[in-house]
Fold:
Amino acid sequence: MAHRGTFITFEGLDGCGKSTQMRRLAERLREKGHTVLETAEPGGTPIGLQVRRVLLDSANQELSPSAELLLYFACRAQNVDQWILPALERGEIVLSDRFTDSSLVYQGIGRGLGAEAVLALDRIACRGLAPDLTLLIAIDLETGLRRAHARNKRKNEVESRMDEQAVEFHRIVSGAYLELAAREPQRIKVIDGRRTMGVVERDVWETVARYVS
Ligand code: TYD
Structure:
């Protein structure tokens, strides 16, 4: 889809550090004089945040896989229409903490709904909008789960329905991310997230610098 801005997404397992990295990147881009919109999925817009509550409430154990998929895309459709496309049309840089790749790996592969169902919804919600660059912050499963559980405990988190999935689910998601990156090496850059935050930050910056002037 033609627009003047730059659309960059962050992907990775829960606890991979992508949210911190995205915040730091946004600060750095602003220091350079860029206008940056930061968003996240599920959530982002006020309406998306209401849908997020339904998706992540650990009380909603009955949520069916296809309802889950549709709700993630409801958030995305709202985010694209209300925030992302207008910002890109204004020529801004948009950073999103997760986007359609999350649905491809968590729902398409993890839940077994298939890539085709996910891509069909993507065509409706995103209408051809795809990230210019995706940073996959890769960590090992054990580190990710440990960090996600520590965070949930610390925050007394009720938004943990996805984190509570079986280890096997997260293992499948982890493999699916790497396969996706191998299929689209031009768009998806894998960043080794096991290193210290500062080293990862430098790597992210060097990668992004090639895309923004
Ligand atoms: P998020 O708020 O990014 O949490 P975290 O900081 O732990 O990554 O995402 C919440 C959960 O939603 C996360 O486990 C991944 C999952 N998710 C999907 O399953 N499909 C999607 O399309 C998206 C955007 C997220």
Summary: The first strand starts at residue 6 and ends at 11.
